[in-house]
Write a structure and sequence with these properties.
heterodimer, A: 601 residues, alpha/beta, Flavocytochrome C3, Chain A, domain 1, 7-stranded mixed β-sheet, 17 helices, 21 strands, globular, B: 312 residues, alpha+beta, Ubiquitin-like (UB roll), Fumarate Reductase Iron-sulfur Protein, Chain B, domain 2, 2 domains, 5-stranded mixed β-sheet, 12 helices, 7 strands, disordered N terminus
């Protein structure tokens, strides 16, 4: 403990993607001592991979657009399981958050009269996504990064947080972690903490997520006793690369479809017309002619079925492949080459062009892409208050993918980047308010800190245990095959049994070398979070015996009226056991309910 | 970010050997059967010759791995980690060419490991993977790139003019396109790595922002809304004149940004104009636009308010 590195702040933000950086900017602008702690170098977080755009009803392309329509689209996309207050705040505040980025130097693509251009995406009635070609996430993260640096936020890069610690009053008071470059431990004492650690995708074999998405924040919050909401809802993005095998899971932006691309099976059929669900029939084109007219005239035509919400498109692709009408490498064809000029494609989708050319040797201006659904996004997560992002643990806030509620059972494309900005800022405001209300210096037991550090180093002391890579691989196989896009009770129960065994094995891993920049050891310290989060997902997936949004049960293919009224909330008790309960949805005020009743155009 | 993570440059000599046209052949004795990877045409295995070491020293170690169709260099490095060398240090995030984390020197050339396909490298020859040479080594393929973050902190930030009455801005697509080219930068820092001003002269780092930052300065110079003047700072403290336009940076840019032609050369012209051009001088007098001095401009940067790399 004597040479243990300690820092004290007012607000500590864990995770430096869009939500974390936006929160840090807010706290720093308030003049608070603010730290931003991240596992990778600054500017490399997963937000950088977002492609298509940020949804905000600015009405620059279709003046008919407004927050009410955006709210309705978000709720319907989430199969009405969303926290309606979050959906309202998100739709109302997103435009200002986008304009704010412009004040900080962002350069979005423009309309002909010089305003921010907006693009079409699945589930959005109007073209609504502010974007920069197909690299919007990079623009977002760089703008926020440059703003945070200009403000002088204290950044702790390549620093992994292991645990949150509470003081005697049950407030979160410290976070213990280590520097990846040196392996030295570090403790952050703070009045308020914001979790902005992103997703959980690394527990699946094929995912669009980077190595960082191990659910650290989800797990740390759960270990601290926070309520975990709707953990069964995992999004499988309908269009990811399938070939070469080693590129399997790399994202292909929904912008391809927004800009005119269509899905075809091996027979050349635009099969999405066969999968239009009743809920969206009134607003979806039923002929190719109408669908094609829609790109130029949204008012008198209905949306192409390729732009149904992601859950619908992912299931349809899966059915085509299972029906024997898939592409050579087990996907379907995504074709923009036959529908738009090469110049248009290269201008609108430069990184898709580059990615397919370099990795698969496919020229997307001349031939179709092969795509299939893989793990992409976590709708579920830490339960938060809509207005303040506060969790059920005092002093702990959460925003972005790690938090839950906004997206309900399925997220619409483009709503994630705007989520980061709207609720990242709200987390910064509320964490600052909370920090300012606290007196004195936060304190935790040094014995507890020692225990966490000692436990993290245990894999070095064990001889002959398994490699953490072997356990990660088996976990990924379990989640891929048993807790995937289509689920059954038998397989989910089997997954829980597998997770029990993996827990035992993970407790016995051994690693070689020293703690200095050691990826094997780093992975060993990620495994507990990956296993906890996988268990939360699987348990909720068993309990929701219906199909809704991102959660599809082959044994319960329909929606269930009772389950449509509840969220599933889990909590890890102090003895380590799991509690799961059904909690009624937040009641919707009449003025919001009215917006949902409005007839489709 | 912590000072302890900045090791000395103890391995420079070993790494410099990498930079010749012929990379040193890995020692065939480093593992049994390590020479079988050179069997021409027999693409059932590949030999990865990867730098292993820390600031105290190190060497290239050969790993013979089964060949897998469609792989990129990073895939094979990952298989080495999952197999024979779990503690092999390398950075990566997106594995799709979008985050710029996995920069390394592959067969002597700076490249992203995730975008370098194995089947585009010479068949039957070992693939030599070394860390970027210009930055201090931390371990194996990981270097301390904090120099770049320090230079970012010294940049006087974006300062926009007032918005339209409705609180938003109007900009034409044609006016944002120049800046958008530079904003494609994924900060892989390979342009910094290959720039001989700092690659071969460690001393220059104190006063040289480097190609990555020059495109950032040019981005702001061409930004339709920005009002900050950073030209004297560039000339006096950021070492713009040290660049002698060899275009090495442009050649290695994975985003194909025309760093030299579109950023460095125009910046040099603007800086020279502002310093010596009597017409520009007169224009400023008439328009009452006083050019900021380097000191005035630097005082605006966040690094000015915090301890810097220079002070360390």
């Amino acid at each position: 403990m004597a040479d243990h590195e300690m820092h004290e702040f007012d607000v500590v933000i864990i995770g430096a993607g869009g939500a974390g950086m936006r929160a840090a900017i807010e706290a720093k602008e308030r003049g608070l001592r603010t730290a931003l702690v991240c596992k990778s170098l600054l500017g490399k977080a997963h937000t950088v991979m977002a492609e298509g755009g940020a949804a905000a009803a600015m009405g620059n392309v279709w003046p008919e657009d407004n927050w009410q329509v955006h709210f309705r689209d978000t709720m319907r996309g989430g199969k009405l399981l969303n926290n309606c207050r979050m959906a309202q705040l998100h739709a109302q505040e997103a435009p200002e958050r986008i304009h704010e980025l412009e004040r900080w130097g962002a350069l979005f693509d423009r309309t002909s009269d010089g305003r921010i251009l907006q693009r079409d995406f699945g589930g959005h009635r109007y073209a609504r996504l502010a974007h920069v070609g197909d690299r919007t996430g990079l623009e977002l993260i760089r703008t926020l990064q440059q703003r945070a640096v200009a403000l002088g936020v204290d950044v702790f890069m390549e620093c992994k947080v292991l645990r949150l610690m509470k003081d005697d009053d049950g407030r979160v008071a410290a976070a213990v972690g280590y520097w990846r470059p040196t392996g030295q431990f570090v403790t952050f004492l703070s009045k308020a903490f914001v979790i902005a650690t992103g997703g959980i995708g690394k527990s699946w074999m094929y995912t669009t997520n980077s190595w960082e998405s191990t659910g650290d924040g989800h797990a740390m919050a759960a270990w601290a006793g926070a309520d975990m909401l709707d953990m069964e809802f995992v999004q499988f993005h309908p269009t990811c690369m399938v070939w070469p095998m080693t590129a399997r899971g790399i994202l292909v932006t929904e912008g391809v479809r927004g800009d005119g691309g269509v899905l075809r099976n091996a027979e050349g059929t635009r099969f999405m017309f066969d999968y239009i669900p009743p809920m969206f029939a009134a607003e979806t084109a039923d002929t190719e002619e109408e669908a094609d007219r829609w790109y130029d005239d949204h008012i008198n035509n209905r949306r192409p079925p390729e732009l149904l919400p992601r859950d619908e498109v992912a299931r349809s692709i899966n059915s085509e492949v299972k029906g024997g009408r898939g592409s050579p490498h087990g996907g379907v064809f995504l074709d923009i080459a036959s529908r738009r000029s090469p110049e248009y494609i290269r201008r609108r989708l430069p990184s898709m062009y580059h990615q397919f050319k370099e990795l698969a040797g496919v020229d997307i201006t001349a031939e179709p892409m092969e795509v299939a659904p893989f793990q992409h996004y976590m709708m579920g997560g830490i339960r938060v208050d809509a207005d303040t992002t506060s969790t059920t643990v005092t002093g702990l806030f959460a925003a972005g993918e790690a938090a839950a509620g906004l997206h309900g059972a399925n997220r619409l494309g483009g709503n994630s980047l705007s989520d980061l900005l709207v609720f990242g800022r709200r987390a910064g405001v509320a964490a600052s308010d909370f920090a300012e209300s606290q007196q004195g210096t936060p304190s935790v037991s040094s014995a507890e800190i020692d225990r966490v550090c000692d436990e993290a180093l245990e894999p070095f002391r064990r001889d002959g245990g398994e490699s953490p890579y072997d356990i990660q691989k088996d976990l990924q196989e379990t989640m891929q095959h048993l807790v995937g896009l289509i689920r059954t009770e038998d397989e989910l129960v089997q997954a829980l049994e597998d997770l029990d065994k993996l827990d035992e094995r993970a407790a016995e891993v051994s690693v070689t070398g020293t703690p200095v920049y050691n990826p094997g050891w780093n992975l060993a310290t990620d495994l507990p979070a990956m296993l906890t989060v996988s268990r939360l997902v699987t348990r909720a997936a068993i309990e929701r015996r219906e199909s809704r949004g991102g959660h599809t049960r082959e044994d319960y293919p329909k929606t269930d009226a009772e389950l449509s009224k509840v969220n599933l909330i889990q909590r890890i008790r102090t003895d380590g056991t799991y509690n799961l309960e059904r909690v009624p949805l937040r009641e919707m005020p009449d003025e919001l309910a009215k917006l949902l009743e409005e007839a489709a155009p | 970010m912590s000072p302890e993570t900045t090791p000395g440059a103890g391995t420079k000599d070993e790494q410099t050997a990498m930079q010749g046209a012929a990379a040193p052949a890995p020692e065939p004795s480093s593992g049994p059967g390590s020479d079988s990877g050179s069997g021409a045409g027999a693409a059932d295995s590949v030999t990865m010759s990867i730098w292993r070491g820390d600031p105290e020293g190190g060497s290239f170690v050969d790993y013979e791995m089964p060949a897998v169709e469609g792989e990129v260099v990073l895939d094979v490095v990952h298989r080495v980690q999952a197999g024979p060398a779990p503690d092999l240090a390398c950075r990566w995030n997106c594995k799709a060419g979008k985050c710029g984390s996995c920069s390394a020197e592959i067969n002597g050339l700076p490249r992203l490991m995730c975008m370098t396909r194995m089947d585009q490298l010479p068949p039957g020859e070992p693939v030599v993977v070394a860390p970027m040479k210009t930055f201090p080594l931390i371990r194996d393929l990981v270097t301390d790139v904090s120099f770049n973050y320090e230079m970012a902190r010294r940049l006087p930030p974006f300062a926009p003019k007032p918005p339209e009455p409705d609180g938003t801005y109007r900009m034409m697509q044609i006016d944002v396109e120049r800046g958008q080219e530079f904003r494609k930068c994924i900060e892989c820092f390979m342009c910094q790595d290959v720039c001989h001003v700092i690659r071969d002269h460690e001393d220059n780092k104190v006063g040289y922002a480097g190609p990555r930052m020059f495109i950032r300065y040019m981005e702001l110079e061409s930004h339709p809304l920005d009002t900050n003047d950073r030209r004297e700072l560039l000339r006096q403290q950021m070492g713009l004149s040290m660049c002698n336009i060899t275009k090495c940076c442009t050649e290695v840019c994975p985003e194909h940004i025309k760093i030299t032609d579109n950023a460095i050369i125009p910046l040099k012209e603007r800086v020279v104009d502002s310093s010596y051009d009597p017409v520009a001088w007169l224009g400023r007098k008439i328009l009452r636009r006083t050019k900021l001095t380097a000191a005035q401009s630097a005082a605006d940067a966040p690094a000015h308010k915090a301890p810097t790399w220079e002070d360390a």
